[in-house]
């Protein structure tokens, strides 16, 4: 069992108007095997949480802590966080010209495991992961995300998830831009990785549609940089019906 513990996390960024605080004291604990959904309106701090966990340099932690099994994540570099078992599926996956998918994945796997995977085993694993995500194996020879559709980029993120086998996966709006078929394929990949390794999942989303396929154990509502309410799957259903208006003004409550 592993634990990702976030305590009183406060994060700021620099803008043209000066320093702006985005996260204002976030508490969240994820255990191995748990699926946590983070929902909330635009600008509430969801993506800031994701990128802070991953170590994006734009986001400055001004208070609080992030610990992985008692170790200070904030003292780790980005690559150290990845080797420790943290994974981020980005909302907008970037293109990497000149680096093929096959080379990227094998290099990442080598860096995380400390040794290169055996080629005889690695080839079939890569092909199977891509087939499972309905990606033509020929994509392995293409440059990372270059010329990929939005759905292909998101499926490639889940190929990475399945092959790298992290302890905790942060999925930042993985459902955005996906049609129904692609959403099902991506969700099946997440569920497959979850069942195979027992990883903990932090699933960030605006909408409940992905939660029809990836069933959360806990739902957290973000409003103005804080957790405004917490509950089980029924909370997501209520948000589907009521929206976020009930959290405006002074109506936000902790549950």
Write up this protein.
This protein has 255 residues and is an alpha/beta fold. Helix content is 34%, strand content 30%. It has seven helices and twelve strands. A six-stranded mixed beta sheet has the order 6-9-10-3-11-12, with helices on both faces. It has a four-stranded antiparallel beta sheet with strand order 2-1-4-5, covered by helices on one side. A two-stranded antiparallel sheet has the order 7-8. A hairpin with a 2-residue loop joins strand 4 and strand 5. Helix 5 (150-164) runs parallel beside helix 6. The longest helix has 18 residues, at 180-197. It is globular. Mean pLDDT is 93; it is low at 250-255.
Helix proportion range: 25-40%
CA radius of gyration: 18 Å
Largest sheet: 6 strands, mixed
What's the order of the H and E elements?
EEEHEEHEEHHEHEHEEEH
Tell me the number of helical segments per DSSP (H or I, 4 or more residues long): 7
Number of E-type strands: 12
In which order are the strands of the major sheet placed?
6-9-10-3-11-12
Structural class: alpha/beta
Mean pLDDT: 93
Report the sheet-strand fraction: 25-35%
* Low-confidence blocks of residues: 250-255
**Which shape, going by the Cα principal axes?**
globular
Report how far apart the termini are. Answer: 26 Å
